[in-house]
Amino acid sequence: MRNGTVTSFILLGLTDDPQLQVLIFIFLFLTYRLSVTGNLTIITFTFVDSHLKTPIYFFLKNFSFLEISFTSACIPRYLYNIATGNKVITYNACMSQVFFTDICGTTEFFLLAAMSYDRYVAICKPLHYMTIVSSRVCGILITCCWMAGFCVIFPLICLCLNLEFCNSNVLDHFACDAFPLVKISCSNTWIIEQTVIISAVLTLNMTLTCVVLSYGSIIRTIFRFPTVQQRKKAFSTCSSHMIVVSITYGTCIFICMNPTAKEEVTINKLVSLLISSVSPALNPFIYTLRNNQVKKAFKGSFERLALFSTK
């Protein structure tokens, strides 16, 4: 995998101000550690705690893995660039970064749709939940999410690999992405631009339609519950997922629809940075702070550690 016109790119990052770079480095280092620690904790608990062997935590485990992979594909490299002052990234590393960030980001949307279906079955068809969302079905859904993500980004990656760069190898971004690559390419980029738009629209529309239909049915079912306590319990079951869906789709719609984000490169970079650093760090807290079973798993683990340390 090599483009005949360049062997490396230069990532400009967010700023050249040394003081701002120090603040950005500290901020990203903390959010990255929180993201990896929080998501790894969730993954660990779903393996070791018997109460977290249900389909919802199976999906959450895979979602946490995607979050770690997504943020690890771009943030450590940017931290390295700030720490060393070396902004050069090889062509192969750049294209690998585009592949991993895109496939993890795209697969995440399909997984959120699958998780909304899981919540729909849990609320609307509780008696048949374990039959409908069996372990086999969960495995099929996860496989389909990854395959759908790969099918969406594969044409884009193929087109990116065929881009030629004649005049510049400077990317005005903190990570390799399709849009900065298209901006400096001397090839005809009309096809790749349309591919990006079509892929984004299809992914957002397909997954958001599934989410809206699922939660439309959930809300109708909840309002039919006879008691307030049943309604509160049902809403608490879905609230964490609804918050994560709102953050994920809201930021992506902002990038796609807001004219300022298209015109101002700085705003676009800042929003991309928030998506790749802050969101993965917040998601574990959103799921754990509102989930009694995860809280119990935390408490049980700490009690076992305390008991082990006293022996």
Structural descriptors:
311 residues, mainly alpha, three-stranded mixed β-sheet, 11 helices, 3 strands
Describe this structure in words.
The protein is mainly α. Helices cover 79% and strands 3% of the residues. It has helices at 18-48, 55-84, 91-124, 129-132, 135-161, 178-184, 190-223, 228-257, 259-263, 265-289, 292-310; strands at 8-11, 88-90, 170-171. A three-stranded mixed β-sheet has the order 2-1-3. The model is unreliable at 259-263 (pLDDT under 50).
User: Which descriptor suits the 3D outline?
Assistant: globular
Low-confidence stretches: 259-263
How many beta strands in the DSSP annotation?
A: 3
Radius of gyration: 21 Å
Strand order of the largest sheet: 2-1-3
Helix-strand layout with pairing:
Layout: E1 8-11, H1 18-48, H2 55-84, E2 88-90, H3 91-124, H4 129-132, H5 135-161, E3 170-171, H6 178-184, H7 190-223, H8 228-257, H9 259-263, H10 265-289, H11 292-310
Helix pairs in contact: 1-2, 1-10, 2-3, 2-10, 3-5, 3-7, 3-8, 5-7, 7-8, 8-10
